[in-house]
Amino acid sequence: MQRTDFGIKNSRIWHLCSQDIETNKSITLDNWTRYRGEFREIYYLNDIKKFLEVDHFNHTFRFFSAGVRKNNKDDFRRFFRDYLGYREIDM
């Protein structure tokens, strides 16, 4: 399985991030919601707290403090850094 090749343990994170959704649409899986803009995606926890922003134009991503578990944050990081080759920027 491709997600295990990159060390991503949580299959829900893999499915949420890898789904192809249209611009200006969203997808929710468990308590995470992914909103897709033209060049940017924003991930929310419980539709309230922004915890991740992905910039597809600059190939970067950054986390916000929102109380996401460390192991889930690491899986999101592995998806964008290792699988897509994006660079993490610090707040």
Gyration radius, rounded? 12 Å
Largest sheet: spatial strand order: 1-2-3-4-5-6
Uncertain residue segments = none
Strand segment count: 6
Coarse structural class: alpha+beta
Number of helices: 3
Broad shape: globular
User: Biggest sheet, in brief?
Assistant: 6 strands, mixed
Q: Kindly report how far apart the N and C termini lie.
A: 33 Å
Helicity, as a percent range: 25-40%
Q: Estimate what percentage of residues fall within beta strands.
A: 25-35%
Question: How is the secondary structure organized here?
Answer:
Elements: H1 2-5, H2 11-18, E1 25-29, E2 32-36, E3 40-45, E4 49-55, E5 60-63, H3 70-83, E6 87-88
Parallel strand pairs: 5-6
Antiparallel strand pairs: 1-2, 2-3, 3-4, 4-5
Task: Characterise the protein shown here.
The termini are far apart. Helices cover 29% and strands 32% of the residues. The chain is of the alpha+beta class and 91 residues long. The chain has a six-stranded mixed sheet, with helices on one face. The mean pLDDT is 92. The radius of gyration is 12 Å and the shape is globular. 15% of the residues are buried. It has three helices and six strands; from the N terminus they run H-H-E-E-E-E-E-H-E. Strand 5, helix 3 and strand 6 form a beta-alpha-beta unit. The longest helix is centred in the C-terminal third of the chain and has 14 residues.
